[in-house]
# Entry
Amino acid sequence: MAVHVFVGPSCPEPLVKQHHPGFTVHGPVRHGDLFPQRYSHGDVVVIVDGIYHHRLALRHKEILDALARGITVVGAASIGALRAAELDQYGMIGVGQVYRWYRDGVFDGDDAVSVAHGETGSLAGLNVPLVNLHTAVLAAQAAGILTQQDGRGLTERMEREYYPLRTQERILAVARDRGERAFAEWYAARFTADPACFDQKRADALEALALAERLGTRPRGTAAGRSAEPPKACAAGAPSATTHRDWRTEYHRRWRNLFVPDDPALPHRVAYQQVFTADFPEVWWDFLQHRANAAGDDSSGGLRAHVLRELGPAAARWHDDPVLRSRITALLCPLPDLANSRDVDLLLQRESAEDRARVTDWLESTRRHLDSHPERSLAQISDATCARLLRLVWNVRTEAELSTECTRRGLPSLRHAAVALRPFAIGYLGSRTARQPVGGEADA
# Structure
């Protein structure tokens, strides 16, 4: 059982190690950080700081995925408090005053905890987060330095500032401009005596770490929160039982497929099989059969029973016709789970050593090309160009044949096929050029 913590400006790593030397410390959390299998059932993950301005932020469903895997997730202080206020009904544990403020609606914007900082070196914050100013205002009101009205006015004035500009100096200047010189002098003196005196984010982070210490010593298998299953009843603020949807969407599966596999090339290896292996439609049909059986869809009938139930009797008759079964693949095109070794083995059952070498070679060709042409990107390879290449690879001519071949290979649409093809397009065209006879005419 391990405790993992994601921290940054709110609670620097040395402070974590000072109080909890056994914790595994990570930098601010970002999209994909909770998917890797290094977090296992019974572990505790504490989310304090996270990236969410100029990089992709941690998604809610990543936390739900961790909860469903038996991981206890605690949030506090910064993005952790935000996510906990949104997901506490599903089992995430919120800790601290900032979490309670978000939960109770005192704050509703992520800028209230936002802190600007560098990406390298020290992660010390460059501005005062609004929640820390709110803590100072409340303390000033309790001390008789500010009235409630003046405190609310100062906070609302700072809310209108872009968050990186909410510096210590700016707060003092705004307070003086508003005629609140007593507060400015009191605030500056208190901060000089103890820079952490109004640091609510730091206090909440330490509270969350203390809770994680206790949770980390509980007997393995003892759950601290609820499972992240879709709600079955209408709790306060929860979707009703008649309208809820499973959170395990295609986007969630795609994120898992991107971040979970130990082999970063695995998604490309599967995509190569889908696009370039001539008999992959047979592999995909076999995959659908095994998937239906594993799901327990009337195991005596497997895929046929599943089609009968989902698509009706007419569709069930397509099952045994090698031509008409393409209608089934056009209607049933599930996204494989690359974190599932059984799915991977089925999809790569005909992969050869030559295939793997070609994947490596073509991806490297793409990398070298893009490195030498920084003004270019794979996004510049249009869907129309991909369609022309796919017609060439699959030896089809019409748009209808192209669409059918996509779904026979587990690619729901041309757009999905284009996404699978693009990383290989440069290498593929290079290999064709190398084989093209001198004076020959290219056909793509």
